[in-house]
Amino acid sequence: MKHKAYWALKFLNFDEALSGEKRKSQLLELEEMRLNAYESSRLYKEKVKAYHNKKLLKKDFRPGQQVLLFNSRLKLFPGKLKSKWYGPFTIKEVKRYGAVELFDPQSETSNRTWIVNGQRLKLYHDGNIERLTTILQLQDP
User: Fold this and answer.
1) Alpha carbon of 114 to those of 49, 57, 73, 119: distances in Å?
2) Could you give the number of structural domains in the chain?
3) What CATH code is carried by the domain that includes residue 104?
């Protein structure tokens, strides 16, 4: 009986040197996996940034031009037919790095100006737009 207990303890008590080496190799593998994940994340972010920068259009605005402003914060009344472009506004000054200073020429009471990102603007082309209207007569069934 004593002999069996000895082998059971020998089996349960691992060799310290062997288990230490195994633990070190596991820690090194874990560190290598972490570094690989960090590197692939960095590469992915670089690719996504390059893709988005490629999609940005270079817009050249000049003072005096009329533009429409995209309202990206319009969440109150979502709908397909609601326009997200407001304006026209007039460009007062073009600043560095694509920032544009706008003012509203229709509000004569105040000379309020504000600065927006040039990517939120598009040129406004004057002119009358023919709108098609259709009148439907609804009848009760």
Assistant:
1) 28, 22, 16, 15
2) 2
3) 2.30.30
Residue 1: predicted pLDDT: 52
How far apart CA 92 and CA 70 sit, in angstroms, is: 18
Q: What are the φ/ψ torsions at residue 79 (nearest 5 degrees)?
A: -175, 160
Question: Tokens representing 93?
Answer: 């000054």
Residue 49 domain-assigned (yes or no):
yes
Buried b (16+ CB within 10 A) or exposed e, 3-38: eeeeeeeeeeeeeeeeeeeeeeeeeeeeeeeeeeee
Within 49-139, strands assigned E span 66-70, 85-94, 99-103, 113-117, 121-123
For residue 48, the model assigns a pLDDT of 96
Of 76, 72, 80, 102, the closest CA to residue 90 belongs to: 102
* Residue of higher predicted confidence among 129 and 52: 52
The band of 71, judged by pLDDT with boundaries at 50, 70 and 90, is confident
pTM exceeds 0.85 for this model? no
Per cent of the chain over pLDDT 70 is 74
Q: Please check whether residues 116 and 74 belong to one and the same domain.
A: yes
